[in-house]
Amino acid sequence: MKAAKAGEASDRRGVPIYPGDLLRSPHFRERVRGRLVQRWLYHVACENDDGTLQLVPTAWLNPTHLRMGGSCPVWPRTVADAEVIHGYGPGEILDFRDRQRVAKAGPNQRGQAVA
After folding, report:
1. How far apart are CA 38 and CA 52, in angstroms?
2. What is d(CA 17, CA 98) in angstroms, rounded to the nearest whole number?
3. Nearest CA to 27 among 42, 36, 40, 11?
4. What order do you get walking across the sheet with 53-57 strand by strand?
5. Whole-angstrom Cα distance, residue 53 to residue 30?
């Protein structure tokens, strides 16, 4: 299985992922004052020299931060729980919400565009 290229992988809502997108994925849950609180990880989708996408932790964008943790290639199951929360493009599309959604593929079908 190869790592996904721009537009090949999609988030849990079916939004295609392109370079520059900000993704939010669940990290862990904890109890705070008796309530269960979800904690999140934030990553930026970057394009490698070979055209594949890589998720880079947003903490890496701060030049003074020690590079703890790592980046990972974008595999379809890597982003199954993630969601795009900010992004532009491709082309003339100004907002990620305007991208054509892709239906999640079942075991015997390919992803089909959703209106």
Report:
1. 30
2. 13
3. 40
4. 72-73, 53-57, 35-47, 22-32, 83-86
5. 31
Whether the Cβ atoms of residue 105 and residue 95 lie closer than 8 Å to each other: no
Residue-range domain boundaries for the chain: 1-91
Closest by CA to 13, choosing from 83, 76, 74, is 83
CA distance 26 to 30: 12
Place of tokens 């988030």: 11
Going by the DSSP 8-state scheme, the letter that residue 52 receives in this structure is B
- Average pLDDT over every residue of 68-74: 63
Q: How far apart are CA 11 and CA 60, in angstroms?
A: 22
Q: Which residues contact 101 (CB under 8 A, 6 or more apart)?
A: 10, 13, 14, 15, 113, 114
Indicate the pTM of the whole model: 0.72
C-alpha 69/C-alpha 57 separation (Å) is 8
> Of 90, 13, 103, which is closest to residue 53 (Cα–Cα)?
90
pLDDT for residue 109: 44
Chain centroid, CA 11 distance in Å = 6
